[in-house]
Design goal:
mainly alpha; five-stranded parallel beta sheet; two-stranded antiparallel ribbon; 9 strands; disordered C terminus; binds flavin-adenine dinucleotide; binds iron/sulfur cluster
């Protein structure tokens, strides 16, 4: 028997006379819902490990270990407080396992899953009366609040939502006015980081035998999954979550605001808190982190900056996802839907398809809008093949090492490069979903489809978040270690011009982009032609897994011999 199995048997109370609650992989908390108020000796939790789920996409090993270790420790924590635990390793989707358990245990309940994909998996069981869905109490705002904050309907804007929520909750408000006289200190939070103050090192955790066992299971059973597994970087227990949050408050938040947009090769997180993976499985609760930060003795720009992310952005993206049914229903009409989960470019990198266990009734692969028509594949550089672009290579290496990078590297390096190459927004979303430990459909889809790629037009952001090398050079130290010169040879700037020229017609009239669009149309036609030629050359070479150099790009060689027809 496994260490986990033995410990569970040792702690397991008598399961008779219980009301059973299904606890999905991302609800590992007893601070909300029935677990927070019903008597432990009358409650039982159903914990399911379904290898079918991780097999759907090439998820990072660290993500699999994080979820599994937290789920198992949560089961042990509940058994220790007298809650009965039914732990099942299922062969197939959650709905099949729960159907069998409902026969055994009687009617089951579950807090509404955050992931649409899990809701879709469970729907037939809910319809058949085998599972009762009760509200998820982990969210801070309601759909009604969201709608009331946007009286004109879509397009939706985070600022209006955030202001309404601040007013409704009274958070960072004084006598009906925002603390400091403004709702947002965003403009003050754009300093680059030159090494001072020292960036904190993330905490490490001592893996116990249960976590060690999860690590071995992941290495054995999910050996084909990408990414490094580092159990010492993995918060697995309720106590680990406390330790991470204490570190975030002490070491990160004092400097969080001013350096929020900075990027550095010397620190993948800088002063960001790294709590997203734990917030998204509810190990840490948003109400708690927002409440504590609001009361902390910190510069207002840091308190407000953090609270805007959790109370504002995190809630906002979730509402947009719900309102659009995961971007299936858009104001301009329905989106195309990917029939099955995408591999995020895995095949192109690994040279073999990602195999998964497909069953009738499985959830689809998500909405695939592409307002600008991007449909190219994601280059193998996103899987770790060196591209020669130091910013991209640095961030990608960090992602496969840690399953994490902070917001600006996601937006202004990864999504920026992919958008400039007209990569399929769906393929990029699937890559983010697989690669990051905090990715779930409700949060990754809005951030990539809505923010990172402008795939749903101006539905939730006023303009595409794209930039040339000047922004990356100003906000990071990546260019210092790059073979390209950001002011002369870097291809990202011509890619930016080529993007604007290519999409000028569709982007015309986009607020905040007018000057850039006018500038590109004033650009000398010869330079516009060479921007486009460079775009085609860079994309072709990156798709072929080649590394770029200033020499090879300026030489403008023809198509590489190993470029495959059909690869875009
Ligand atoms: C292309 C792209 C993809 C992203 N994919 C994800 C994802 O899969 N999962 C995810 O949780 N976040 C995602 N984000 C949002 C954001 O980048 C991460 O939440 C953040 O970087 C997590 O690191 P942190 O905990 O150190 O955050 P901090 O900077 O310390 O922020 C605190 C918290 O605010 C919340 N937050 C901040 N911005 C957002 C946002 N835009 N959307 C939702 N929550 C936010 C997170 O819960 C985060 O933990 C994505 C952003 C972009 C641009
Ligand atoms: S020079 Fe260009 S490619 Fe190199 S790090 Fe800077 S922005 Fe990135």
């Amino acid at each position: 028997m496994s260490v986990f199995g033995r410990r569970l048997v040792e702690r397991q109370p008598d399961p008779a006379g219980r009301r059973w609650l299904f606890v999905p992989y991302d609800q590992v908390t007893d601070a909300i819902g029935p677990l927070s108020r019903e008597e432990p000796r009358r409650l039982g939790v159903v914990i399911i490990e379904a290898p079918w789920k991780p097999a759907r996409r090439p998820y990072h090993k660290q993500k699999l270990a994080l979820i599994l270790a937290n789920l198992r420790h949560f089961a042990l924590e509940q058994a220790a407080r007298g809650v009965a635990v039914r732990h099942v390793v299922a062969n197939g989707p959650y709905r099949s396992a729960l159907e069998r358990l409902a026969h055994d245990l009687g009617p089951l309940r579950a807090m509404e899953p955050a992931e649409r994909e899990l809701r879709a998996d469970l729907q037939s069981l809910v319809d058949a009366g085998g599972l009762e869905i009760i509200p998820h109490e982990g969210w801070l705002t309601t759909a009604e609040q969201f709608r009331a904050s946007q009286p004109g309907g879509p397009p939706w804007r985070m600022d209006a939502f955030y202001r309404a929520v601040r007013r409704a909750t009274g958070i960072l408000m004084r006598s009906g006015k925002p603390e400091g006289g403004k709702f947002s200190f965003d403009v003050a939070n754009r300093l680059p980081w030159a090494g001072e103050p020292t960036a904190p090192s993330p905490p490490s955790f001592a893996p116990d035998p249960v976590t060690e066992e999860v690590g071995q299971l992941v290495e054995r059973r999910f050996a084909q999954h990408p990414g490094c597994l580092d159990l010492t970087a993995l918060p697995a227990t309720a106590a680990d979550a406390e330790a991470l949050w204490c570190w975030a408050k002490r070491a990160c938040l004092p400097a969080f605001g001013p350096y929020e947009d900075a990027m550095s090769a010397r620190s993948s997180g800088l002063f960001h808190t790294r709590i997203s993976a734990l917030l998204n499985i509810n190990r840490l609760l948003p109400a708690r982190v927002v409440g504590e930060v609001a009361r902390m003795n910190l510069p207002l720009q840091s308190r407000e900056g953090f609270i805007r992310q959790v109370l504002g952005w995190r809630e906002f993206v979730r509402h947009v996802h719900r309102e659009t049914d995961g971007f299936r229903r858009l104001p301009g009409g329905p989106s195309p839907i990917a029939p099955g989960p995408g591999d995020g470019g895995y095949r192109r990198w690994a040279g073999k398809p990602w195999t998964r266990d497909v069953r009738a009734g499985d959830p689809d692969g998500g909405a695939a809008p592409s307002a600008l028509g991007g449909d190219a594949g994601l280059p193998p550089a996103f899987w770790g093949v060196p591209s020669g672009l130091a910013c991209l290579d640095r961030v990608v290496a960090g992602v496969w090492r840690e399953g994490y990078s902070h917001h600006i590297t996601r937006l202004m390096v990864l999504a920026n490069v992919a958008a400039l190459l007209d990569v399929s927004p769906r393929e990029l979303t699937d890559w983010f979903w697989a690669a990051y430990t905090d990715a779930y459909d409700w949060v990754v889809e809005p951030n990539v489809l809505g923010m990172g790629t402008f795939a749903v037009g101006d539905l939730m952001s006023t303009k595409p978040y794209i930039s040339g090398a000047a922004y990356i050079d100003r906000m990071s130290d990546f260019c210092e270690e790059c073979a390209f010169d950001p002011t002369r040879t870097c291809p990202i700037t011509p890619l930016y011009w080529a993007f604007l020229a290519r999409h000028e017609r569709r982007l015309r009239g986009t607020p905040r982009l007018g000057i850039a669009l006018q500038a590109v149309m004033r650009r000398d036609p010869g330079r516009r032609r060479s921007d486009r030629a460079l775009f085609l050359r860079v994309r072709e070479r990156l798709l072929a897994g080649e590394s770029l150099t200033p020499e090879s790009l300026s030489a403008g060689r023809g198509r590489p011999a190993h470029w495959k027809a059909g690869d875009r």
